[in-house]
Each structure stands twice: as C-alpha cells, then as structure tokens.
Design brief:
- By secondary structure, the protein is an alpha/beta fold.
- The longest helix is centred in the middle third of the chain and has 18 residues.
- It is globular and about 65 Å long.
- The structure holds adenosine-5'-triphosphate.
- This is Oligopeptide/dipeptide ABC transporter, ATP-binding protein, C-terminal domain-containing protein.
- Keywords: ATP-binding, Nucleotide-binding, Transport.
- GO terms for molecular function: ATP binding; ATP hydrolysis activity.
Length: 364
Amino acid sequence: MSAASPEPAASCVGTRPTEDRPAALLDIRELTVEFRQGRRTPPLRAVDGVSLSVAPGETLGLVGESGSGKSTIGRAVLGLTPVRSGTIRFEDADITRATAKVRRELSARLQVVFQDPYSSLNPARTIGSTLAEPLLVQGRLTGRQSADRVAEMLGRVGLPPDTADRYPAQFSGGQRQRIAIARALMPGPRLVICDEPVSALDLSVQAQVMNLLAELQEALQLSYLFVAHDLPVVRHLSHRILVLYRGQVMETGPAEALYARPVHPYTRMLIAAVPEPDPGTQRSRRAARRGGPLSAGPLSAGPPSAGTAAVTDRGCAFAARCVHALDICRHDRPLLLPVGAPDRSGPVTRSAACHRASELLAQP
Ligand SMILES: Nc1ncnc2c1ncn2[C@@H]1O[C@H](COP(=O)(O)OP(=O)(O)OP(=O)(O)O)[C@@H](O)[C@H]1O
C-alpha cells in the first residue's frame, strides 16, 4: 500500500450532507503545513496530509504528544500559519488563504481560546473593556449594548457582573480562563478552537472549565475543535477524537469507542500512559503497551527501538516505537482506512492508519 494522496476515510470527513450526516462546519482536506529550518535542512513537515471535519454542535478532540502538529492545525484554521497544500473550508467557503479582510469578518463566527489566558489578556485594561473592544471596533454594537453583552457573557461563564470593572491580575487561573472563554463568545461564534484551554489549570479547576464548555456548547450550539495532550481530558467533551503522531492521523473515531477499544498502537500507548487507579486495569494496560499477544507472534518485530526516527514518506511514522511493527510497517506507509464492522448506529465510523488494524481490533 502506498500513502499517495489517499482519499480521506469517510469516517473522519463526513462532509457530504446526507440524511444522517449534516454538512460540516469545518472541513479540512489533505492539509500539509511545513516550516523552514534553514537553507540546507529540509523543511519540517508539522502537518502531513490531515483530513478532518467538525459538524455543527460537534466537538472533535485532537490529541497527540507534544510536537504532533495539533496546535499547527488550529493555527492554520485561524490563518496564523501558512498552508503548504490542502484546503480548509469553513461554512462551505474556502478559507485556506483568506485575506485579512475576510479573516476579520470570519472572527465573528470563528474564535479561539488559548492555553494561557493571562498572556492574552491586557493587564492594563478592565475585563469589560477587553471583552467589549472587538464588537465596538467593528461598530456592531453601541456602548450600552456592548455593556449588556459583556454582563450576559460573564453570567454565562459563571462570573459576577462586577468582573467587568476589574483587572486580569485580580483573578485566579480558572477565572481568567472563564474570562477568555467569555471573550471568545462575545461575537457569537459557531466554531471555537480550544487550544489546550485547561492544561495549565489544577485538576479540579480543569473539570469545572470542561463542564462549563460542555454547558455552553449545549446552550449556544457551539462546535469545538479541541486540542489536548491527554486523551482523558478530551474524552468526555468530544464526540469524536482524532489521534495525531508527527503530523499524521493515526486513528479517528467516536470518543467512547476509541477510548474503550483503541486500535492503533500509538493510541494504546497514549491511553496506557495515563495513570489508572485500579491496579488490575493498569497491569493489563502495561501488558498491552509491551505488546500483548500480537507482538509474540511469528510475524512480529523485535522490541521497539527507543527514541525517534526521521519522518519519511516511507513506512509508518510510528514504526520505530511500535511494539507490533513488521517489516512492511517500516517500508510502506499505511493508509487511514475504516476498521470494524458497521453497527446498529450506522456505517463504519472508525479508521486507523495501521497495517495490523484488523488484527489489533480483534485482539481481546
Ligand atoms: N512557527 C514555527 N516554526 C518552526 N517550527 C514550528 C513552528 N510551529 C510549530 N513548529 C514545529 O512543528 C511541530 C508541530 O508543532 P505543534 O505546536 O503544532 O505541535 P503540538 O502537537 O501542538 O505540540 P504542543 O502540544 O507541544 O504544542 C513541532 O515540531 C514544532 O516544533
């Protein structure tokens, strides 16, 4: 099998407006983003042929280790990083290389919440003025209307009205992230890119902010593209999850199914890395990480070579770390293909880029 321009697996695209699948709000096809590294070094391919979609009211969780290209995808959607190839469509318009004017118009419907709200909130301005500014600049609201809107949004994120008169330094990390969410919601967006919005927060505060995002999604019919390192963080909020490794999609599928029965060895590794309170469950996870029954088979490779291998167009990007890797995995890049059988809820919705996906799916 070769990796040449594979047709995106139906499960991770879902853009055709069919009876059971609404048209996508965000639709990314074969996105590639590269960064120059100097004259003599080839460019770094941060995102490598990624296709995905987000439907209205849906959350797609983007997970992967540091450097897997999650934030770069979000930045490409926001027009903050140039795209080498591929297309990004939002509300059915091609925004891959949208002009600054189009971007300004888009900001009413496409917003972002970053990891560190403190650096994105001006310490010298009151919260009220920070929240109201974009709408006032665009002339969309009068002063009175924007003050009402600020109060409404602060209420929605669980903060008292007097928050508007105070300054960022007067708030905790969790409160500041609520403020950043309120700011993103001010123009009434349809899609919010959440770039690790809770990873800098304590665990209990993380849960509160995640719950808030879920409530807001329900109340305002928002869509989220949710970037996170940890699968458990995105698991409950996401409808679907897309797992990235070195800029490539390793696996995608409905959140609960993917978490309960990961197919790709990389997804399994990510889940096994999460501390598990039950020692029995943790033992079986560790066994899976070491390879389990598959890797003991006659076709299996030896232990994974530690460290990292250069990304090449040949072979699976994860092969060097994979306990199940075969020769083919080192030479032939697997396509992202549907795995599993259709169930009562509809067509096949899971895909994995792994030569051994069917064997791994069948593994108990
Ligand atoms: N502006 C840039 N210039 C050069 N390289 C970049 C740039 N932005 C990102 N990269 C590189 O692209 C790759 C993907 O980075 P990206 O930030 O998208 O990963 P990530 O999965 O979001 O990781 P993290 O969770 O650590 O932010 C990394 O190797 C990173 O060093």
